[in-house]
Amino acid sequence: MTGTDLILLGKVAATHGIKGQLRIVPYSGSGETFLYLKSVLLRNASGKSVEHDIAAVSSHGRKVLVALKGYTDINQVIPFVGSEVLIKRAQLPPVEEGEFYWHDLIGMQVVTDTGRSLGILESIIETGSNDVYVVTSGKEEILIPALEDVVVSIDVAAKKMTVTPVEGLFDL
After folding, report:
1. Where residue 55 falls among pLDDT bands split at 50, 70, 90?
2. Residue 153 domain-assigned (yes or no)
3. How many domains does the chain fold into?
4. Which pairs count as long-range contacts for 153-158, CB under 8 Å and 24+ apart, including other chains?
């Protein structure tokens, strides 16, 4: 299994209750993906990953509560606190046309429709109306709204996004 076969979904922030649940902070801002999973890999600080089957998942505000099969006591899961939560790429449900997983977008080269390089898509900010792409080039940071009028094309295979800048995008 290569590094690209694994997707980093979040981090175990704490335990929850006394029955061995884990409180996970999802990195995507949404824990919905966890509802479809049958297992997760937990990677500790030393880099060791162990796969665990999931017994139950529920939402808890902006966090996700996960119960692992075979773990029914808080003392059994305390060692998992601080671990990264990963899954195998094949576990992800397919996306609709025109939709993308954040991990496929992060790291893309972003260019304008005139060929000007803007930088690399470093992160995504989830807002109420639309996502915002954070593109960096050196010390400069550009915020690009994830709107159909702005994002002309996304080529996941080529790791390239083409945008049409809206008026004022490059103004301070």
Report:
1. very high
2. yes
3. 2
4. 154/100, 154/105, 154/108, 156/100, 156/104
